[in-house]
């Protein structure tokens, strides 16, 4: 099997993933997944597609993450891994889609408007 690559995005985060057959080693920006995501919750989010397909120890994953925060990067990486797994085996798409791993979460931060403190918040109105 040759290298399969995929792209995942969430908020400002972009994840580029390269998947090979291997022992299940996950490297993110040159660091191990345990050091890059110290939180077990974020590691769980990243590994969800692999756990769903019971493929946790079958593939070596090399990822480049850029932009965003921890949560956005973890969810971008989850989408990228799911897309790569579908490229490897298209029959897995239905199982991953049912769990919601194939859907790009399009929610973005709303811009701040002029004359307001935040995007939706307004300064207190005083009639007199």
Descriptors:
single chain, 128 residues, alpha+beta, five-stranded mixed beta sheet, 4 helices, 5 strands
List the helices and strands and how they pair.
Elements: E1 4-10, E2 13-21, E3 26-28, E4 31-32, H1 33-36, H2 40-52, E5 59-66, H3 70-88, H4 93-99
Helix pairs in contact: 2-3
Describe the model.
By secondary structure, the protein is an alpha+beta fold. The protein has one domain: Ribosomal Protein S5, domain 2. Helix content is 34%, strand content 23%. It contains 4 helices and 5 strands. A 5-stranded mixed beta sheet has the order 1-2-5-3-4. Strand 3 and strand 4 (31-32) form a beta hairpin.
Low-confidence stretches: none
Can you count the beta strands?
Answer: 5
Query: What distance separates the N and C termini?
Result: 73 Å
CATH architecture, by name, is: 2-Layer Sandwich
Arithmetic mean pLDDT: 94
Structural class, from helix and strand content? Answer: alpha+beta
What's the helical proportion of residues? 25-40%
Strand order of the largest sheet: 1-2-5-3-4
Structural domain tally: 1
> What sequence of helices (H) and strands (E) makes up the elements?
EEEEHHEHH
The CATH class name reads: Alpha Beta
Please tell me what the overall shape is. Answer: elongated
Cα-atom Rg, whole angstroms?
Answer: 18 Å
Number of helices: 4
Largest sheet: 5 strands, mixed
Strand content: 15-25%
What's the CATH topology name?
Ribosomal Protein S5, domain 2
């Amino acid at each position: 099997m040759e290298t399969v690559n995929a792209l995942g995005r969430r908020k400002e985060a972009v994840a580029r993933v390269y998947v090979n057959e291997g022992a299940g080693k996950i490297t993110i920006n040159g660091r191990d997944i345990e050091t890059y995501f110290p939180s077990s919750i974020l590691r769980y989010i990243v590994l969800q597609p692999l756990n769903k397909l019971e493929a946790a120890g079958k593939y070596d994953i090399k990822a480049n993450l850029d932009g965003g925060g921890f949560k956005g990067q973890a969810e971008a990486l989850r989408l990228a891994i799911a897309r790569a797994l579908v490229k490897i085996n298209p029959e897995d798409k239905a199982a991953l889609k049912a769990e919601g791993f194939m859907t790009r979460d399009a929610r973005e931060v709303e811009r701040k408007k002029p004359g307001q403190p935040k995007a939706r918040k307004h300064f207190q109105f005083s009639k007199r």
